[in-house]
TrEMBL record:
It is found in: Cell membrane. This is Oxidoreductase. Belongs to the DoxX family. Keywords: Cell membrane, Membrane, Transmembrane, Transmembrane helix. InterPro entries: DoxX, DoxX-like_oxidoreductase. It comes from the Bacteria. Its main location: membrane. PANTHER family: INNER MEMBRANE PROTEIN YPHA-RELATED (PTHR33452:SF1), OXIDOREDUCTASE CATD-RELATED (PTHR33452). The keyword Transmembrane helix applies. It comes from Neptunomonas japonica JAMM 1380. One of its GO terms (cellular component) is plasma membrane.
């Protein structure tokens, strides 16, 4: 084997060792980093255990689905001329339900991701939330480039690679070690 072949082999061996030692840490910190964004948002929607902060209904109703000024391309659920809702309407009840659902999902899914339990499903759920936020609430390129694309890419890595060895999924045998390409 020539010098180039030996250097290539050394480079491959170093890469394998780095992957072996750094991948579990990288996947753990990636899970934690992206989960923290959603968890902070989710905890802000609650006043205590099972006590939803009703002020967050206004956030969903008027910031997300009836902003003034109107965000072009955003899902607008109020009357576009008056920027008001019909009190007690189906739309208002759905927005309130969506707010509570988001508050639950933004707490449960990140906790699952941090501890590494059902990690791929938790990541898929957060990808769904990210896409809804991007497409229905803030449909602009500047929101996609920063921060939504970072959330989506981080979560896609978790879906593709799994949670890593520092996870309950791996401990319980719910996530096999991914095969390395040869």
């Amino acid at each position: 084997m020539g010098m180039v072949g030996k250097l290539r082999e050394l480079y491959v061996q170093i890469g394998q060792q780095l992957s072996r030692f750094l991948e579990p840490l990288a996947l753990f910190f990636l899970r934690f980093m992206v989960a923290k964004v959603f968890l902070d948002s989710g905890l802000g929607k609650w006043d205590g255990f099972l006590k939803f902060n009703v002020d967050k209904y206004d956030l969903f109703m008027y910031e997300f689905f009836c902003p003034d000024p109107v965000r072009p391309g955003a899902l607008q659920l109020c009357n576009p001329e008056t920027l008001e809702y019909v009190e007690g309407s189906f739309v208002v009840k759905m927005i309130e339900l969506l707010a509570v659902f988001a508050g639950i999902a933004e707490v449960v899914l990140p906790v699952l991701l941090i501890i590494g339990l059902f990690s791929r499903f938790a990541a898929l759920g957060l990808i769904g939330m990210t896409m809804f936020i991007q497409l229905a609430v803030f449909p602009t390129w500047d929101h996609w480039i920063n921060p939504a694309s970072w959330w989506a890419v981080s979560l896609l890595v978790i879906v593709a690679r799994g949670p890593g060895t520092l996870s309950i999924d791996r401990l319980l045998g719910l996530d096999a070690k991914p095969a390395l390409a040869k």
